[in-house]
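Researcher: We're teaching a course module on how sequence relates to structure. For the next exercise, students receive a sequence and then see the predicted structure as tokens, so they can try to spot secondary structure elements on their own. Here is the exercise chain.
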Amino acid sequence: MSSTPMDIDEPGAGTPSLNVTRLLGPNGPSTSKISEVIKNFRPTKFFQRDDVKEGRPQPYVLSIDFDDPGELCMTSESDETIQIYNVREGRHDKSLLSKKYGVKHAKFTHSSSGIIYASTKQNDAIRYLATHDNTFIRYFEGHEASVTNIALHPGSDNFLSCSLDTTVRLWDLNSRNWVAKFHLTNPTLAAWDPAGLVFAIALPASASILLYDYRNYVKPFKIIDVLKEKGPADADAVFRGWTKLEFSNDGKHILLGTRTGGHFLFDAIDGNLKAYLRKPQGGTRRPAPGEADGGSGALESSGDCCFTPDGRYVVSGAAKDLLVWDTLQTPNNKVLEPNFLPQEGKKEPVLVQYNPRFNMIATADKELMFWLPVSDL
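Model: And here is the predicted structure for the students to work with:
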């Protein structure tokens, strides 16, 4: 398919002056051990869109992602735009429009100038965009209902997409045709293990997580029965409200995030529940992927929790503050209680993402917020 020009904002639009150099230090974000700084994170930079016309409401952030080097942060937003931020300089970098197709679940490829994202209108294709010249490289067509999740392979150009059409599809960035298709009941989330040898698919309707060997994915080699392994979780968290599926970078754990009273932490080897991560404040308010009422205007979550890059901690949004669990702690009857990272203004962090290279957390609802370790605490 030939390259298709993509609409972009007028030059200079949406580029407010942002200065967090003092907070990032002379050489950029902190690279200290996470265990040394995790309790010192505080919101340090708040980004509000300056290009939103007067009288129009501030759009909602639909997804957050970082590129592989951790230098760029990207959001997809409810006004059908993609916003890109320079992490080291703490400033807004670029604003792209996708008015014709809409945009959600935007992900960087392994090239910082390449992104893929799902559509919100016209059709359910996934689009591959080169940001350096604002042209579409390829469309990935085949899904017949809304895409609920995109998961990029950690070391290659393959990715998985989940859809309400009851399929999960495996794609190669270099081909417009899908490589494999899985017909499953309500497959809303997918994730790769850090070595790229195993992928997982979450099926909330059957309360199960399927694990596949990437070298032979005819059938799953293991099924995690969430109902059986739910521990102290209530029934609401077992069959609905699943917001995130993620492997830890050390390969030890699988995180199943929920918008209810807690998250599940499973052993990645035997599939047993290691801990239920309780959220004392309750969950974030956005519906889980695939659960929004089409007529309500509700915006679905694309992930309100994540592992830190060392795999030790889980960071999560809640009704007010950020929550942090230390997975090395011994659970009390399978329950882990969090530490709180407070913030002023109490803006609900409904989306949470940890930078893969630096000690920096991004959260969002209507506005994007950068969290950094504050050394004088």
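Model: If you want an answer key for the exercise: The longest helix spans residues 21-24. The domain at 4-373 is CATH 2.130.10.10 (Methylamine Dehydrogenase; Chain H).
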